[in-house]
């Protein structure tokens, strides 16, 4: 990890374990990863791809609409504001420190060890469940497309396997190839979606939709739940922070990537929400019940052929999101292994590829196996996406909240920074994340979604019990294979 030379914490306290690793030689500081391999644009691609923006107009916006109705665009405005506050907190950490451990490393610098462990395991679960949800979405949408073209149904497990193996291999093979591939994939898919949204707005002319402006039919309870769900679209926006050992000039490129992803994502999601509600309202169809919203909007915009292009773009975006997720999860697990929170074999990096070999394989399998189990039970790919995706959100929200909570103390104790912003912004951001989680606990939703917050809480309890009784181990040197 790199730290600002202005302040080097003392060695020997639990909260300084991560920082102490920065005082080793250059090879150890890089954790066996390829130092300075990624440009600022490639670093940005990691965050954007992890958020998987193309999937939002397909799945998340319609779900938010079923709750917030004509207030969907406003839910995204509020959601963007909350995420920008979180992004500001993360970027403050990233200006002073960089490592593969991402948010876990930030939390470990100031929080008690048990809270740092909570941040670590929450973030790891978030990345792995995010990958798993993408696998479920892929086998659903790819299965529908293939059946429409061929007339035959394809095995979900076969499709999931065909989808999973390549991104595991790419993440293991070379982080530069992965980053450049993600950049191209997301550019193509986001451009196609943006084109449809622009055509919809152009088709109806530049005017304000009175139903959306006056929030017609919106209820406070529905809007509150829709706002929480809107945060789903941003999950993973901080993923550039896992590239602390591999980004060029990480103390500048990573904070910029985090802020830019939050800003670009917020603008993109808000425009998509407004255009989709407008387009469906004018067409007389229900956005909340549509299985192919982008096809409807492409027809409204007068270019139906774009609907098929966007379908393909969504699959490409899913792949880019999974690739970003496994890069992130493997590096967090690598850092956890070095700090004694995971098995020592997971710290191994490949001597030629400079990638975490066993951590990449372990996180890939951890994402793939739950999907296979659910698929064997006949679970729809949409449900796999929704269930595991919500578990990912709880993991992200928890780690975001803990980092925001840790920031004031870190800036004050390590860098002597105390001002109005550090006294207010982190607490507002932390409260927003706390609310996002608690709002899902009560009132309890029906079905599987009502149980998921409690599943996550049980997961945290098990992890903390393991942490409390595990044998203590010291930070270790990187290993190469």
Could you outline the blueprint of secondary structure elements for this entry?
Layout: E1 2-3, H1 17-20, H2 26-29, H3 40-51, H4 55-68, H5 72-96, E2 97-98, H6 102-108, H7 113-150, H8 156-173, H9 175-204, H10 210-213, H11 220-230, H12 250-283, H13 293-300, H14 305-338, E3 348-349, H15 357-376, H16 381-415, H17 420-438, H18 448-469, E4 479-480
Parallel strand pairs: 3-4
Antiparallel strand pairs: 1-2
Helix pairs in contact: 3-9, 3-12, 3-14, 4-11, 4-12, 5-11, 5-12, 5-16, 5-17, 6-7, 6-16, 7-8, 7-14, 7-15, 7-16, 7-18, 8-14, 8-15, 9-12, 9-13, 9-14, 12-13, 13-14, 14-15, 16-17, 16-18
Provide structural commentary.
By secondary structure, this protein is mostly helical. The chain has a single domain (49-480), classed as Amino acid/polyamine transporter I, CATH 1.20.1740.10. The chain contains 18 helices and 4 strands. The strands form 2 sheets. The chain has a two-stranded antiparallel sheet. Strands 3-4 form a two-stranded parallel sheet. Helix 5 packs parallel to helix 11 (220-230), helix 7 (113-150) packs across helix 8 (156-173) and helix 8 packs antiparallel against helix 15 (357-376).
């Amino acid at each position: 990890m790199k730290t600002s030379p202005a302040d080097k914490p003392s060695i020997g306290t639990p909260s300084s374990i991560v920082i102490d690793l920065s005082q080793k030689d250059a090879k150890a500081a890089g954790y066996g990863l390829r130092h300075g391999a990624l440009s600022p644009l490639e670093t940005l691609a990691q965050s954007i791809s992890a958020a998987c923006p193309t999937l939002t107009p397909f799945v998340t916006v319609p779900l938010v609409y079923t709750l917030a109705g004509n207030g969907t665009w406003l839910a995204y405005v509020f959601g963007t504001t909350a995420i920008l506050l979180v992004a500001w907190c993360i970027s403050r950490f990233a200006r002073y420190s960089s490592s593969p451990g991402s948010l876990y490393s930030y939390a470990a610098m100031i929080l008690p060890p048990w809270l740092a462990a909570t941040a670590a395991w929450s973030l790891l679960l978030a990345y792995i469940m995010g990958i798993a949800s993408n696998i479920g979405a892929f086998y659903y949408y790819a299965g529908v497309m293939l059946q429409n073209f061929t007339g035959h149904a394809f095995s979900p497990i076969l499709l999931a396997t065909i989808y999973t193996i390549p991104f595991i291999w790419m993440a293991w093979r070379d982080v530069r190839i992965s980053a450049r591939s993600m950049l191209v994939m997301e550019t193509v898919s986001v451009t196609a979606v943006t084109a449809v949204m622009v055509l919809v707005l152009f088709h109806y002319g530049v005017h304000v939709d009175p139903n959306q402006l006056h929030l017609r039919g919106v209820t406070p309870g529905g809007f509150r739940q829709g706002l929480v769900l809107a945060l789903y679209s941003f999950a993973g926006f901080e993923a550039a922070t896992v590239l602390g050992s591999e980004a060029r000039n990480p103390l500048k490129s990573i904070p910029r990537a985090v802020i830019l992803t939050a800003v670009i994502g917020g603008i993109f999601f808000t425009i998509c929400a407004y255009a989709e509600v407008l387009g469906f309202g004018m067409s007389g169809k229900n956005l909340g019940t549509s299985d192919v919203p982008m096809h409807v909007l492409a027809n409204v915009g007068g270019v139906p052929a774009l609907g098929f292009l966007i379908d393909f773009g969504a699959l490409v975006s899913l792949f880019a999101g999974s690739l970003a997720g496994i890069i992130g999860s493997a590096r967090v697990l690598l850092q956890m292994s070095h700090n004694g929170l995971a098995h020592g074999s997971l710290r191994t990096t490949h001597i030629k590829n400079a990638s975490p070999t066993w951590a990449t394989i372990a996180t890939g399998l951890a994402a793939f196996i739950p999907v296979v189990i659910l698929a064997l039970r006949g679970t729809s790919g949409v449900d796999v996406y929704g269930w595991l995706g919500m578990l990912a959100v709880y993991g992200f929200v928890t780690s975001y909240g803990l980092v925001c909570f840790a920031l004031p103390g870190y800036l004050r104790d390590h860098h002597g920074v105390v001002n109005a912003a550090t006294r207010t912004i982190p607490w507002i951001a932390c409260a927003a994340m706390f609310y996002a989680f608690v709002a899902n606990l009560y009132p309890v939703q029906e079905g599987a979604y009502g149980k998921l917050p409690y599943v996550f809480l049980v997961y945290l309890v098990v992890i903390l019990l393991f942490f409390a009784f595990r044998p203590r181990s010291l930070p270790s040197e990187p290993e190469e294979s």
